[in-house]
Amino acid sequence: MESFPTFRIPSTVETPSVCVDRALMELNIQRMASGLKEKGVAFRPHVKSHKSLAIARRQLAAGAIGLTTATIGEAEVFVNGGVKDILIAYPLWVTDAKAARIRALLDRATIAVGVSSVEGARNLGSKIGDARLNVLVEVESGESRTGVTDPGAALAVAEAAATGGLVIKGVFTHGGHSYAGADAAEVAAADEGRALLAAAAALRAAGYDVETMSAGSTPTALLGSAGTVTEERPGTFVFGDRQQVALGAHRAADVALFVAATVVQVSGRQFVLDAGAKVFTKDLPKTLDGFGALPAYPDSRIDRLYDHHAVVTAASGRVPSIGERVAVIPNHVCPVSNLTDEFVVLDEHGEEVDRWPVDARCRNR
After folding, report:
1. How many structural domains are present in the chain?
2. CATH classification of the domain holding 287
3. By the number of CB atoms within 10 A of the CB, which of 55, 106, 150, 180 ranks highest?
């Protein structure tokens, strides 16, 4: 049974709000940074999980060498905030407008981008062709999403990028199949290492200096093989969420983010909250039952989500009263961050101490 913290919701918080326990979040950052440092692996956290300059600065202070973003828009926010080293870990297809934005970033920071196809590499070269732009070839390691599937294809992508005047910095992968279940992370971490090694060997044999071998997912981050992986790009670890707990990648007691909601209706053993899909999203991983967890009512299940309603059934035990405020642990925290304007920051006593803007909210392109 999940055993999440029983969060206190201060009277200053209106519902629905996304709240962060500062002490737990900082513990999560320090634990990841320390674990990677012990392995001799660089820490490049993915900011899509929080999209916050305040949190990114804490990650950098803990030893991160730079940040990972999913979009140019996210990169712009963090470079504007003073960050000097960004990997856009996504196979971009660049228009003239996007190329101009990347060139503007190159004037102020070290930028690397992902490439997963010969066509994508040629597109980058023709639209940008700037030797300041570093390229990491994306390697598929088991998720069957994006990335080349064999070393020969990795070499072809690298050659297309180099012909376009770009600098080949290395290779990267995402072992997303680590989310398949509680026993999947070790297999996925091993797959990441094998895929990176094979691609790097092909590039090195052709004369490329492979400086970076980058892997990334919260479940695999501390399982990767030092010496094979040079940097890790975990994201969700900063808060944790219900999915990470189910996978065994995060302790329930260390989950640092919750949604504060109010019970607006009670009908027998069913009750309704004032937060729905526009707060939680309808993310329902195969490893979970229901759309979130209520620490104060662990036998309750969020059965249905509408835009602004969560319909909950209490299987046993007491049912909350109408007007009662409850904490909800999201299934997947990353889209929750993208949907809120701010984090309400709480201290170790559950008192509000700050509000941090979600600076890169909805910067999805």
Report:
1. 2
2. 2.40.37.20
3. 55
